[in-house]
Amino acid sequence: MSLLASKTSVFKFYLPALFAGAIAPLSLSPVNFWPAAIISVFVLLLTLEKTAPRQAAKIGWAFGLGFFGLGASWVYVSINVYGNASGIFAAFLTAVFVAALAILFALQCWVYQRYFSGLHRALGFATCWVLFEWLRSWLLTGFPWLYLGYGHINTLLANLAPVLGVLGISFTIVLISGMLYEMTLIWRQEKRWMSKQLAIYELKFILIGISLFFLGAISWVEEEQGLSADIALVQANIDQNLKFDPAYIAEGLNLYNGLSSPLWGNDIIIWPETAIPLLYQRADTELAFFDRLARDNNSSLVTGILYRKDSKIYNSVTALGNGSGVYHKQKLVPFGEYVPLAGIMEPVLQIFSLPMSSLASGPRDQALLEASGFSLAAYICYEVVYPDFVRKQAHMADFLVTISNDTWFGGSFGPLQHLQMAAMRALENGRYMVRATSNGVTAFIDEKGQIVDQANQFEIAILESTVPVFHGRTPFSYWGSWPIVLFSFLMLALIAVLRKKRRDL
Asked: Out of 58, 182, 381, 447, which one is annotated catalytic?
């Protein structure tokens, strides 16, 4: 390839793809400009037009660089500020992380252009997109972050969430972008806006809108009349560098105790992840004190704590006072709580003096927590971003509880993206989500995924609310993401067969 041709490719294909990738996360929190996702996919499809599969892979990789480079930029903050890595090395690790994730978009665009681009473009690209979002939910333990569907929690598309979950919304967004792309191709060919083919697409948009409207009129769950819990959330805003300092632990616990003193009239008080920064087995005095305090006030205290069992250490949450049970975190944060490919990665991290964690993953099918007569499905930090993981026990709970230590994100997009994902879990499952964090964003979220109340970030804060209990189940709580995933596999297979038949004619 000549130098001129190379420069042409950069400006014609790779820079537009990079730009398209970078604008997609703007549809998510905190920007919440939902049209950005539709524009992003539309530009990507235009860029892929008439390219060979190998070039499509390069375009997809460029798109992924922009997508994860902006959307997951909080990784740099976690590594640099709280991982104590130098700015240069943190930037290097973040770049490697982003470049590796971008390979998934490269593969996605290669598959699309190799097998599906010439027939049913919109449907083919939408199904490819959903399958690769789903792949990210479990590959190498998963990174189910930045799904396009999250940006539409406050639009008409949100009505899909209780039925098909966030992946169903993502599918519809990409399908809409693909239909707009196909309409553009028709307009290029016919050079007029009024035609039979374009009218068919307009009818499709109308049918999608009507379907979404009627879905929104369905009440999947019902409120239990006369049954509610008075809940208080405590956000102590303790600096991450002090939290586990032995010299500060007592002061930190005194702060939580003081903030909670006026709250004991509530049925339940909730503290965030590792609010008690001690091992459960070594905190007899502290646990006995708070347990007695909660019982004396006819209340329950739910708090994060570390737990040791059989030489393993778990990130856990327990209920004290009028509560019972201990839940051990199952979905661990890569590099934050465990080291993937430990035999390879640990020596590298030791060279650069980066902190390592070796927490254990809790067993499956753990019992719900009980607090003041209510059943709580608890999720610790990262766990709430897994749609199908959350839905497994959500329907058995009176409400959902997630505790987190979003201090690691600093002032980045991370905490607000995390909050948005927690809100989607409430909408998918038709249950209130109660969220307590170390420094934000602590919030109450209703069964429609709407934030009822939230605390400001980086402030000491207390929130109190009466949380209603809902019964019944959403369709998503029964079958999770499998319908949209299986539909996508089926559609890709059908398109592949039709494409082969067309070539054979």
From this structure: 381
Burial label for 350, CB within 10 Å (0-12, 13-18, 19+), is exposed
Backbone angles phi, psi at 488, to 5 degrees: -65, -45
pLDDT, tens digit (0-9, with 9 covering 90-100), for 385-410 = 999 999 999 999 999 999 999 888 88
The topology under which CATH files domain 222-337+351-473 is Nitrilase/N-carbamoyl-D-aminoacid amidohydrolase (3.60.110)
Domain ranges of the chain: 3-219+481-504, 222-337+351-473
DSSP code string of 225-240: EEEEEEEEEEE----H
381 is catalytic: yes
Global confidence as pTM: 0.94
Catalytic residue, chosen from 329, 331, 383, 428, is: 329
Task: Quote the CA–CA distance of 438 and 440 in Å, as a whole number.
Answer: 6
**Are the C-beta atoms of residues 286 and 276 closer than 8 Å to each other?**
yes
Residue with tokens 């027939």: 119
DSSP code per residue over 339-367 = -TTHHHHHHHHHHTT-----PPPPPSSPP
Structural contact between residues 257 and 234, judged by C-beta atoms closer than 8 angstroms: no
Which residue in the list 273, 337, 383, 447 is annotated as catalytic?
Answer: 273
The CA radius of gyration of the chain, in Å to the nearest whole number, is 24
* Among the listed residues 436, 375, 394, 468, the one whose alpha carbon sits nearest the alpha carbon of residue 162: 394
Long-range contacts: 87-91, Cβ < 8 Å, 24+? 89/352
Q: What angle do CA 348, 350, 351 make, to 5 degrees?
A: 65
Q: Are 221 and 474 in contact (CB under 8 A)?
A: yes
Question: Partners of 320 in the beta sheet?
Answer: 301
- Note the pLDDT tens digit of each residue in 265-274: 999 999 999 9
Residue in the block written with tokens 């375009």: 59
Strands lying side by side in the sheet with 323-324: 323-324, 369-371, 374-380, 399-404, 433-437, 443-445, 451-454
Active site residue 273: yes
